[in-house]
Design a protein that fits this description.
Length: 315
Amino acid sequence: MKLTKLATVMALGGALTLTARAGHPMKWADLPEAVRATVLANGGVAGQTVDRENGKIKGLTVYEAGVKDKDGSIADLVITEDGKLVETKHDDAADLAAEQAKAGGGKKVSAAMKFSHPRDITNPLLPLAYLKQDILEGKEGGQTIRIERTILLNKHKKFTIAGQTIDSLVMEDREIKNGALEEVTLDYFAQDDEGTVYYLGEDVDEYDGGKVKGHSGAWLFGKDTQHPGVIIPAHPKVGDKFKSEDVNKEIHEDDEVVAVNETVSVPAGTYENCVKVKEVLADGEIEFKYYAPGVGVVREVPAGGDVVLKSHTTR
C-alpha cells in the first residue's frame, strides 16, 4: 500500500507535555509576527518553514522551528504564539530532527505516543475494526485490476513503539491484473489513542504464473525504518501533510489532504464528505485516494487509471 514532531516541553513550574499527532508546516507569511521575530532573533532565516504543533501550552498555539547556531550546531526552538521562546532543544536529537526535516523525514517516535487498543481501528475514515472485506475494480496502466482487501483477525504482527509492544491489525491485499494474481501483501496497521492510523509495514509476495517470484516493496517498522507511516490522521484538514511510507528512496510516499467534502459515486454507493488525499510516490507519480466516512477507501485514481469500490462487507 501505498507528522511532524511530538515534543515534551520543559517550562518554569514543571514539565508541560505537548502531545500532537503531527506538526503542520506553515508558510512564513502565515506565522504570527511575534513568532517570526523570535525565529529571526535566534538564528532563523526569513522564509523558512516553521511547524505549528497540534497542541497548546497554557492555551497558546505552539510552533517549532529548526535553526542553526553560530557554532554550526542545530537547535529546535519551541515558541508560543505570543513570541515567547519556551525552550531551545540543543542536543543530538535536535540535530537529527532538523536533518530529517530538511530531507523530508517522516513521523518520529515519541514517548507521548500511546496505543491502548491498537487493533481497534475506529477512525471514521478507515474503520478497519468493522471491515470484513472490500472489493475494488477498475483500470490501471491499460490493464483490468481487481483488489481484494480482507481483514485477518486470526493473524498478528507485533511491533515496539516508544517502549510499547503493539499488536497490529493485519489486512491481506490481493491484486489481480487481467485475471492473473500479481501480488499478495499483508499490511500492518495500528491506531493510537488520538485516532491516527499508522502503517507499520507490509510483507509482499509477487506472483508470476501462479508462483512467487519476489518480494519487492516489503518493509517493516523497526527493521527497515524508524519512521512509522501515517495512513490517515485522526482529524484531517485541507493542507495536512504526512507520509504513509518513509523507508528509503525506493519506498517513499508523501501525502497531502487536498479536500474534505468530496462526493463520490461508485458501484458500492454514493458517499458524501469524502476526504481526498494526494499521494506522491517515490518515482514522482501522483495518485489520489478518496476516504468515505464510515467506510474507508472508496476510490483510487492512479496515473492513467481509476479503481472504485464495488462491494463493502462489514463484520
